[in-house]
UniProtKB/TrEMBL annotation:
Xref: PANTHER family: METHYLATED-DNA--PROTEIN-CYSTEINE METHYLTRANSFERASE (PTHR46460:SF1)
Residues of the active site: C153 (nucleophile)
EC number: 2.1.1.63
Keyword Calcium (UniProt): no
GO terms for biological process, alphabetical: methylation
EC top class named in words: transferase
Keyword terms: Cytoplasm, DNA damage, DNA repair, DNA-binding, Metal-binding, Methyltransferase, Phosphoprotein, Transferase, Zinc
Protein name: Methylated-DNA--protein-cysteine methyltransferase
Reaction(s) catalysed by this chain's protein: a 4-O-methyl-thymidine in DNA + L-cysteinyl-[protein] = a thymidine in DNA + S-methyl-L-cysteinyl-[protein]; a 6-O-methyl-2'-deoxyguanosine in DNA + L-cysteinyl-[protein] = S-methyl-L-cysteinyl-[protein] + a 2'-deoxyguanosine in DNA
């Protein structure tokens, strides 16, 4: 599922491809390098897309091109299955180059250790990575997750059962957890 890669930089440009796909939670911006899926962003309307592309170009050192060679095909198929309600994680190669250090450690544990249909508390996730007092830092790692849905930060909740925060908005988090059977489906 994942490709080990260091943070981008060091003068080497990393070519990437991007697309926007429709999903049950709205348009998702997807980008991939030859190593794997590198970025997923919510609410990818036309107004936000240019900012997303500019930021990604700065992070990777190269201007991403719109879906050219099929790098995104597996991610699109996996996300389509996920949003169609097929149980299981989106199992695609991941390029971890946009995260490092503690955040990468937490996100990798989340990706590997919190399966579909389950949740984990911020404190428990901190304990799993050997930092039992770092629940707030885990929250910050969730907020910096470059691969939401695929690296399922929506599965991290407060110890009292509250949803906690979510970069895609709490309604999106509720929808994802309902899709996985963790919460009742919204009544709208």
């Amino acid at each position: 599922m994942d490709i080990e890669a260091g943070p981008t930089g060091g003068g080497r440009a990393v070519p990437a491809e991007w697309t926007v796909m429709e999903s049950a939670i709205g348009p998702l911006f997807l980008a991939a390098t030859e190593r794997g899926l590198v970025r997923v962003e919510f609410h990818a309307d036309a107004a936000r897309r240019e900012r997303m592309l500019d930021r990604l170009a700065g992070q990777l050192g190269a201007e991403p091109v719109e879906r050219a060679s099929g790098l995104l095909a597996g991610a699109i198929r996996g996300l389509d299955r996920y949003f169609a309600g097929e149980p299981g994680d989106v199992d695609v190669p991941l390029d971890w180059s946009l995260t490092a250090g503690f955040n990468r450690q937490v996100l990798r544990e989340l990706a590997e250790g919190v399966p579909y249909g389950t949740v984990v508390g911020y404190g428990e996730l901190a304990r799993r990575v050997g930092q039992p007092g770092a629940a707030q830092a885990v929250g910050a790692a969730m907020g910096s997750n470059p691969l939401p849905v695929v690296v399922p930060c929506h599965r991290v909740v407060e110890s009292d059962g509250g949803l906690g925060g979510f970069g895609g908005g709490l309604e999106t988090k509720r929808q994802l957890l309902a899709l996985e059977g963790v919460l009742p489906a919204p009544l709208f």
